[in-house]
Specification:
Strand content: 15-25%
CATH architecture: Alpha-Beta Barrel
Strand order of the largest sheet: 3-4-5-8-9-10-11
Largest sheet: 7 strands, parallel
Number of helices: 10
Shape: globular
CATH topology: TIM Barrel
Length: 288
Protein backbone atom coordinates (compact mmCIF):
# COMPACT_ATOMS: atom_id res chain seq x y z
CA UNK A 1 0.00 0.00 0.00
CA UNK A 2 1.25 3.46 -0.78
CA UNK A 3 0.03 7.01 -0.74
CA UNK A 4 0.39 7.06 -4.54
CA UNK A 5 1.38 10.72 -4.36
CA UNK A 6 3.27 11.70 -7.48
CA UNK A 7 2.12 8.62 -9.44
CA UNK A 8 0.73 8.90 -12.96
CA UNK A 9 -2.81 8.42 -11.62
CA UNK A 10 -3.15 10.36 -8.34
CA UNK A 11 -5.17 8.64 -5.62
CA UNK A 12 -8.70 10.06 -5.21
CA UNK A 13 -8.08 11.52 -1.72
CA UNK A 14 -5.27 13.66 -3.12
CA UNK A 15 -7.84 15.73 -5.05
CA UNK A 16 -8.70 17.49 -1.77
CA UNK A 17 -5.25 19.09 -1.68
CA UNK A 18 -2.86 18.97 1.26
CA UNK A 19 -2.45 20.55 4.68
CA UNK A 20 0.40 20.70 7.16
CA UNK A 21 0.47 19.45 10.74
CA UNK A 22 3.67 20.96 12.02
CA UNK A 23 6.33 19.34 9.84
CA UNK A 24 3.93 16.74 8.41
CA UNK A 25 1.92 17.08 5.20
CA UNK A 26 -1.25 15.05 4.59
CA UNK A 27 -4.16 15.03 2.18
CA UNK A 28 -7.15 17.06 3.40
CA UNK A 29 -9.43 14.04 2.88
CA UNK A 30 -8.74 11.83 5.88
CA UNK A 31 -10.61 9.07 7.71
CA UNK A 32 -12.23 8.99 11.13
CA UNK A 33 -12.10 5.56 12.77
CA UNK A 34 -14.77 5.97 15.48
CA UNK A 35 -17.32 3.90 13.56
CA UNK A 36 -15.05 0.83 13.44
CA UNK A 37 -16.56 -0.29 16.75
CA UNK A 38 -19.83 -1.70 18.07
CA UNK A 39 -23.11 0.06 18.77
CA UNK A 40 -22.71 3.01 21.10
CA UNK A 41 -19.00 3.18 20.12
CA UNK A 42 -18.62 0.19 22.41
CA UNK A 43 -16.99 -3.19 21.86
CA UNK A 44 -16.29 -5.04 18.66
CA UNK A 45 -17.76 -4.02 15.29
CA UNK A 46 -20.44 -6.19 13.73
CA UNK A 47 -17.98 -7.19 10.98
CA UNK A 48 -14.33 -6.87 12.01
CA UNK A 49 -13.07 -8.19 8.66
CA UNK A 50 -14.96 -5.40 6.87
CA UNK A 51 -13.46 -2.83 9.28
CA UNK A 52 -10.01 -4.08 8.28
CA UNK A 53 -10.94 -3.85 4.59
CA UNK A 54 -12.21 -0.29 5.05
CA UNK A 55 -8.90 0.85 6.52
CA UNK A 56 -6.81 -0.84 3.84
CA UNK A 57 -9.03 0.56 1.09
CA UNK A 58 -8.79 4.04 2.59
CA UNK A 59 -5.01 3.96 2.29
CA UNK A 60 -5.25 2.58 -1.26
CA UNK A 61 -7.47 5.55 -2.10
CA UNK A 62 -4.82 8.00 -0.90
CA UNK A 63 -5.95 8.63 2.68
CA UNK A 64 -2.82 9.32 4.70
CA UNK A 65 -4.42 10.73 7.89
CA UNK A 66 -6.42 8.46 10.19
CA UNK A 67 -8.01 9.81 13.37
CA UNK A 68 -8.93 7.61 16.33
CA UNK A 69 -9.02 7.65 20.15
CA UNK A 70 -8.38 5.27 23.02
CA UNK A 71 -12.04 5.71 24.01
CA UNK A 72 -13.39 4.30 20.75
CA UNK A 73 -14.40 0.82 21.85
CA UNK A 74 -12.62 1.55 24.18
CA UNK A 75 -9.31 0.41 22.64
CA UNK A 76 -10.99 -1.47 19.76
CA UNK A 77 -10.47 1.14 17.03
CA UNK A 78 -6.76 1.46 17.75
CA UNK A 79 -6.34 -2.33 17.79
CA UNK A 80 -8.07 -2.72 14.42
CA UNK A 81 -5.94 0.03 12.87
CA UNK A 82 -2.78 -1.81 13.89
CA UNK A 83 -4.18 -5.15 12.68
CA UNK A 84 -5.09 -3.68 9.31
CA UNK A 85 -2.15 -1.42 8.57
CA UNK A 86 0.93 -2.29 10.64
CA UNK A 87 3.70 -2.08 9.53
CA UNK A 88 2.44 1.32 8.45
CA UNK A 89 3.01 2.68 4.93
CA UNK A 90 5.52 5.49 4.70
CA UNK A 91 3.84 8.86 5.25
CA UNK A 92 0.72 7.54 6.99
CA UNK A 93 -0.17 9.78 9.96
CA UNK A 94 -2.21 8.22 12.76
CA UNK A 95 -3.73 10.64 15.24
CA UNK A 96 -5.28 9.52 18.50
CA UNK A 97 -6.83 11.16 21.54
CA UNK A 98 -7.02 10.74 25.31
CA UNK A 99 -9.11 12.25 28.08
CA UNK A 100 -12.28 10.17 28.40
CA UNK A 101 -13.41 7.23 30.52
CA UNK A 102 -16.02 4.87 29.03
CA UNK A 103 -18.32 3.33 31.66
CA UNK A 104 -20.62 1.87 28.98
CA UNK A 105 -22.16 2.24 25.51
CA UNK A 106 -22.82 5.87 24.57
CA UNK A 107 -21.39 6.98 27.94
CA UNK A 108 -18.47 9.40 28.08
CA UNK A 109 -16.85 10.82 31.23
CA UNK A 110 -13.97 13.31 31.04
CA UNK A 111 -10.77 12.50 32.90
CA UNK A 112 -7.90 14.90 32.31
CA UNK A 113 -5.83 13.93 35.34
CA UNK A 114 -2.19 13.78 34.19
CA UNK A 115 -1.70 10.24 35.49
CA UNK A 116 -4.76 9.06 33.57
CA UNK A 117 -3.61 10.77 30.39
CA UNK A 118 -0.21 9.11 30.72
CA UNK A 119 -1.71 5.65 31.21
CA UNK A 120 -3.96 6.14 28.19
CA UNK A 121 -1.12 7.41 26.03
CA UNK A 122 1.04 4.44 26.96
CA UNK A 123 -1.87 2.15 26.08
CA UNK A 124 -2.36 3.88 22.73
CA UNK A 125 1.31 3.47 21.87
CA UNK A 126 1.11 -0.21 22.73
CA UNK A 127 -2.12 -0.88 20.80
CA UNK A 128 -1.01 1.09 17.73
CA UNK A 129 2.46 -0.54 17.89
CA UNK A 130 4.18 2.83 17.76
CA UNK A 131 7.16 4.34 19.57
CA UNK A 132 5.77 7.83 19.01
CA UNK A 133 2.36 9.14 18.03
CA UNK A 134 2.42 11.74 15.26
CA UNK A 135 -0.58 13.72 16.57
CA UNK A 136 -1.90 13.32 20.11
CA UNK A 137 -5.03 15.27 21.00
CA UNK A 138 -6.59 16.13 24.35
CA UNK A 139 -10.09 14.75 23.77
CA UNK A 140 -11.63 17.29 26.14
CA UNK A 141 -10.32 19.80 28.65
CA UNK A 142 -11.60 18.29 31.89
CA UNK A 143 -13.31 21.00 33.97
CA UNK A 144 -12.58 19.00 37.14
CA UNK A 145 -8.81 19.35 36.66
CA UNK A 146 -6.88 22.64 36.31
CA UNK A 147 -6.37 23.18 32.59
CA UNK A 148 -2.72 24.05 33.18
CA UNK A 149 -2.06 20.59 34.61
CA UNK A 150 -3.50 18.99 31.49
CA UNK A 151 -1.42 21.22 29.20
CA UNK A 152 1.69 20.51 31.28
CA UNK A 153 1.10 16.78 30.80
CA UNK A 154 0.93 17.25 27.03
CA UNK A 155 4.16 19.23 27.14
CA UNK A 156 5.83 16.44 29.11
CA UNK A 157 4.71 13.81 26.60
CA UNK A 158 6.19 15.83 23.77
CA UNK A 159 9.47 16.51 25.58
CA UNK A 160 9.81 12.80 26.32
CA UNK A 161 9.44 11.97 22.64
CA UNK A 162 6.21 10.01 23.11
CA UNK A 163 4.28 12.34 20.78
CA UNK A 164 5.38 14.41 17.82
CA UNK A 165 2.61 17.03 17.65
CA UNK A 166 -0.31 18.05 19.85
CA UNK A 167 -3.93 19.02 19.28
CA UNK A 168 -7.09 19.93 21.19
CA UNK A 169 -10.72 18.93 20.79
CA UNK A 170 -13.97 20.84 21.39
CA UNK A 171 -12.32 24.10 22.44
CA UNK A 172 -12.82 27.80 21.92
CA UNK A 173 -10.25 30.42 20.95
CA UNK A 174 -9.46 31.29 24.59
CA UNK A 175 -8.75 27.62 25.34
CA UNK A 176 -6.42 27.35 22.36
CA UNK A 177 -4.56 30.51 23.33
CA UNK A 178 -4.16 29.24 26.90
CA UNK A 179 -2.77 25.92 25.69
CA UNK A 180 -0.42 27.57 23.21
CA UNK A 181 1.18 29.54 26.05
CA UNK A 182 2.33 26.18 27.41
CA UNK A 183 2.86 23.95 24.38
CA UNK A 184 2.72 24.20 20.57
CA UNK A 185 -0.67 23.21 19.14
CA UNK A 186 -1.04 22.17 15.48
CA UNK A 187 -4.71 21.16 15.26
CA UNK A 188 -8.20 21.65 16.65
CA UNK A 189 -10.97 19.05 16.38
CA UNK A 190 -14.46 20.46 17.00
CA UNK A 191 -18.01 19.53 16.08
CA UNK A 192 -18.64 21.25 12.76
CA UNK A 193 -20.64 20.57 9.63
CA UNK A 194 -22.94 22.26 7.13
CA UNK A 195 -25.78 22.20 9.64
CA UNK A 196 -23.86 23.18 12.79
CA UNK A 197 -21.48 26.12 12.43
CA UNK A 198 -21.15 27.13 16.08
CA UNK A 199 -17.37 27.00 15.83
CA UNK A 200 -17.04 29.34 12.83
CA UNK A 201 -14.75 31.64 14.87
CA UNK A 202 -12.40 28.72 15.58
CA UNK A 203 -12.29 27.77 11.88
CA UNK A 204 -11.28 31.35 11.05
CA UNK A 205 -8.76 31.43 13.91
CA UNK A 206 -7.22 28.15 12.72
CA UNK A 207 -6.85 29.51 9.20
CA UNK A 208 -5.18 32.71 10.45
CA UNK A 209 -2.85 30.88 12.82
CA UNK A 210 -1.85 28.03 10.52
CA UNK A 211 -3.61 25.29 12.50
CA UNK A 212 -5.52 22.39 10.98
CA UNK A 213 -9.23 22.36 11.79
CA UNK A 214 -10.61 18.81 11.96
CA UNK A 215 -14.43 18.77 11.97
CA UNK A 216 -15.93 15.83 13.78
CA UNK A 217 -19.40 14.63 12.81
CA UNK A 218 -18.75 16.15 9.36
CA UNK A 219 -21.55 14.24 7.64
CA UNK A 220 -24.35 15.57 9.80
CA UNK A 221 -25.88 18.02 7.35
CA UNK A 222 -28.53 19.12 9.81
CA UNK A 223 -32.14 18.54 8.90
CA UNK A 224 -31.91 18.12 5.15
CA UNK A 225 -35.19 19.56 4.03
CA UNK A 226 -36.51 18.26 0.77
CA UNK A 227 -35.55 20.76 -1.88
CA UNK A 228 -33.24 22.57 0.59
CA UNK A 229 -29.89 24.15 -0.35
CA UNK A 230 -27.75 21.03 0.10
CA UNK A 231 -30.16 18.90 -1.87
CA UNK A 232 -30.34 21.46 -4.67
CA UNK A 233 -26.55 21.72 -4.88
CA UNK A 234 -26.18 17.95 -4.79
CA UNK A 235 -28.74 17.52 -7.55
CA UNK A 236 -26.97 20.06 -9.78
CA UNK A 237 -23.73 18.09 -9.48
CA UNK A 238 -25.28 14.62 -9.57
CA UNK A 239 -23.90 13.68 -6.14
CA UNK A 240 -25.33 12.77 -2.73
CA UNK A 241 -26.12 15.42 -0.14
CA UNK A 242 -23.32 13.99 1.99
CA UNK A 243 -20.79 14.42 -0.79
CA UNK A 244 -22.02 18.00 -1.19
CA UNK A 245 -21.63 18.52 2.57
CA UNK A 246 -18.02 17.27 2.48
CA UNK A 247 -17.23 19.43 -0.55
CA UNK A 248 -18.64 22.44 1.32
CA UNK A 249 -16.35 21.75 4.27
CA UNK A 250 -13.30 21.54 2.00
CA UNK A 251 -14.33 24.80 0.32
CA UNK A 252 -15.07 26.52 3.63
CA UNK A 253 -11.41 26.95 4.57
CA UNK A 254 -7.97 25.73 3.50
CA UNK A 255 -7.48 24.88 7.19
CA UNK A 256 -10.09 22.11 6.93
CA UNK A 257 -8.96 18.49 7.29
CA UNK A 258 -12.08 16.34 6.95
CA UNK A 259 -12.37 12.88 8.51
CA UNK A 260 -15.63 11.23 7.42
CA UNK A 261 -15.98 7.82 9.02
CA UNK A 262 -17.79 4.65 7.98
CA UNK A 263 -17.71 0.90 8.48
CA UNK A 264 -18.52 0.23 4.80
CA UNK A 265 -16.10 0.20 1.88
CA UNK A 266 -18.86 1.40 -0.46
CA UNK A 267 -19.58 4.43 1.72
CA UNK A 268 -15.85 5.03 2.13
CA UNK A 269 -15.34 5.34 -1.63
CA UNK A 270 -18.40 7.60 -1.91
CA UNK A 271 -17.00 9.89 0.78
CA UNK A 272 -13.54 10.04 -0.74
CA UNK A 273 -15.00 10.85 -4.16
CA UNK A 274 -16.19 14.15 -2.66
CA UNK A 275 -12.55 15.29 -2.75
CA UNK A 276 -12.94 15.79 -6.51
CA UNK A 277 -16.16 17.81 -6.28
CA UNK A 278 -15.70 21.53 -6.87
CA UNK A 279 -18.57 23.74 -5.78
CA UNK A 280 -19.27 26.87 -7.82
CA UNK A 281 -19.53 30.40 -6.40
CA UNK A 282 -23.27 30.06 -6.88
CA UNK A 283 -23.29 26.84 -4.83
CA UNK A 284 -21.34 28.48 -2.02
CA UNK A 285 -23.63 31.50 -1.93
CA UNK A 286 -26.64 29.21 -1.73
CA UNK A 287 -25.14 27.16 1.10
CA UNK A 288 -24.21 30.33 3.02
Amino acid sequence: MSRQRGSATPAPAAAAGTITLGDLTVNRMGFGAMRLTGKGIWGEPRDRAEAVRVLRRAVEQGVDFIDTADSYGPNVSEEIIAEALHPYPEGLVIATKGGFLRPGPDKWVTNGRPEHLRRQLEGSLRRLRLDRIDLYQLHRIDPKVPAGEQFDALRDFQREGLVRHLGLSEVGVEDIDAARRVVPIVSVQNLYNAGDRKWDPVVDYSEREGLAFIPWFPLSAGEIEEGGPLERVARRHGVTVYQAALAWLLARSPAMLVIPGTSSTAHLEENIAAAELRLTPEDLRELG
